[in-house]
Amino acid sequence: MATSKNIKPTESEIEILRVLWDKGKATVREVHEILSTHKDAGYTTTLKLLQIMFEKGLVKRDDSIKTHIYFANVSKEITQKQFMGKMINSLFSGSSTQLVMQALGNHQHSKEELEEIQQLLNNLKKK
Amino acid sequence: MATSKNIKPTESEIEILRVLWDKGKATVREVHEILSTHKDAGYTTTLKLLQIMFEKGLVKRDDSIKTHIYFANVSKEITQKQFMGKMINSLFSGSSTQLVMQALGNHQHSKEELEEIQQLLNNLKKK
DNA sequence: TATTGCTTACGAAAATAATCGTATCAATGG
DNA sequence: CCATTGATACGATTATTTTCGTAAGCAATA
User: Fold this and answer.
1) Do A100 and B97 touch (CB under 8 A)?
2) Which domain holds residue B27?
């Protein structure tokens, strides 16, 4: 049983996961290139981070070739849920409704987006 | 200009802020009593944390009396926004709509809560 | 007054996270 | 064949966060 599930990625680890979620797979260098557009840390830092994440089970890798290829091993959705849950508890007194209202009220949403939310809301109300 | 605004509280600091937001004000001992119901760290740990938070400007205190009284110096709302923003960027590709949908879809909401959300949604749609 | 109990202050250790330097290996081109 | 380039491994350093131990003040009271 892969017990890697409730390991909470650190901030830097999330940055890396974003790249992997986005691209599907990537070499250390590719990850590093992307990160370095908005952050400056050396190549070996990224490498080390990926190695640590590998040990934690946050990423998989194909090391059958010289230049390893990395993949996310935790889904974006699960990670989102994990952090949402944490946030709801720590900052919204456990009320996901409060969080929703906050997000709705304090951010811009286009007409289309509002409609999309309305759809979901309708579905929920039916039950 | 109090520049204390974009200091991001750490995890432990948030736990403390929750108590202060909830109670309005509290002594170190009161904070500690509450925290110790779900966490075990010594009294001086809580004290030190509050002192650090004071230096950072996260809390105010009345130290005109022997047993100091602490108050939050950052609002819950602003802190919520701050963390929401961070989360939207790091985990929802900048889309607050996605976050809203996630929270709506993956958590329980009572009929009344759904209605409350509907109200807000109606308001937003008007504009 | 001396003791006890509760307080703050504060340095420093322990734990966690992030960064880097260096060794080493493999492929490639001259 | 050897120098160069680019890759991994990994120990060690640095930074940040959390925790605690100890000293010292003050007030109630035995």
Assistant:
1) no
2) 10-72
d(CA B14, CA B35): 11
How many folded domains does chain A comprise? 2
Chain B residue with CA closest to A77: the answer is B102
Query: For position B54, which CATH number holds?
Result: 1.10.10.10
Q: Are residues A64 and A48 in the same domain?
A: yes
* Site of tokens 């119901």: B37
A28 touches strand D (CB under 7 A): yes
ipTM: 0.90
A84 contacts on B by Cβ (under 8 Å): 87, 99, 102-103, 106-107
The CA R_g of chain B, rounded to the nearest whole Å, is: 18
What pLDDT sits at residue B7?
Answer: 86
Contacts of B84 in chain A (CB under 8 A): 87, 99, 102-103, 106-107
pLDDT over 70 for what percent of chain A?
96
Other CB atoms closer than 10 Å to residue B35's CB: what's the count?
20
For residues B46 and B84, membership in a common domain is answered with no
Residue B59: strand pairing partners = B72
Cβ proximity of A50 and A16 under 8 Å: yes
In the predicted model, what is the mean pLDDT of residues B43-62? 98
